[in-house]
Amino acid sequence: MISNASRTLNPLFIILIAGLVAGFFDITYACVFFGIRNQVSPTRIFQSVARGALGQSAFAGGLKTALLGLFFHFLIALIWATLFYFATRFVPFMIEHAVISGLIYGLCIYLVMYGIVMRYSAIHSQVPPWRYPWAVLIPNVLIHMLGIGLPIAVIVRNFSTYGNE
Q1: 98 contacts 157 by C-beta, under 8 angstroms
Q2: Would 126 be classed as within a structural domain?
């Protein structure tokens, strides 16, 4: 078995990998789940991300706002990966128990995104994170736990030297 110390990567590279993987899982889920359920294109889904900064005008911006939304989406995923990585420097439990930490982290991401970010962004959602219909709530919570929090935690753990230094 290869020790973590022999697989050490630059912290920025670890964060980049974790953020891109989590972002890919999440945007793929959004395109499949919302695309099929609501019969909307990926362009429209990306524009809905840009709506957080631009408001409803994001839907009139065509490809430019779709690309901006995709950029914002991955930027947010990278921010979550960065926060997790630096938290592990102070809380060894997050590395030692990456699976449970990742699942809890994903749930926290869901609560922050749906409870704070969407409320105070240009979206102005007034729906509490737990008040969505079950058919929306359960898959959204699961993708945040299994597709965002867990991959970030496992990637950070697998390439981290914390505790082995």
Answers
A1: yes
A2: yes
Q: Indicate if the alpha-carbon torsion angle 126, 132, 133, 136 is positive or negative.
A: positive
Residue 165 belongs to a domain: no
Q: Give the global pTM.
A: 0.90
Q: Residue 115's CB: how many other CB atoms inside 10 A?
A: 15
Q: What are phi and psi of 66, to 5 degrees?
A: -65, -45
Is residue 164 domain-resident? no
Q: Compute CA distances 109 → 60, 63, 64, 81, whole Å.
A: 29, 28, 27, 11
Host domain of residue 110? 9-158
Cα Rg, the chain, nearest whole Å: 17
Number of domains in the chain: 1
67: in domain: yes
> For residues 66 and 101, what is the distance between their CA atoms, to the nearest angstrom?
32
Check if the beta carbon of residue 18 is closer than 8 Å to that of residue 95. no
* Token pair belonging to 38: 């609501």
- How does pLDDT run across 33-87, given as a tens digit for each residue? 888 888 999 999 999 999 999 999 999 999 999 999 999 999 999 999 999 999 9
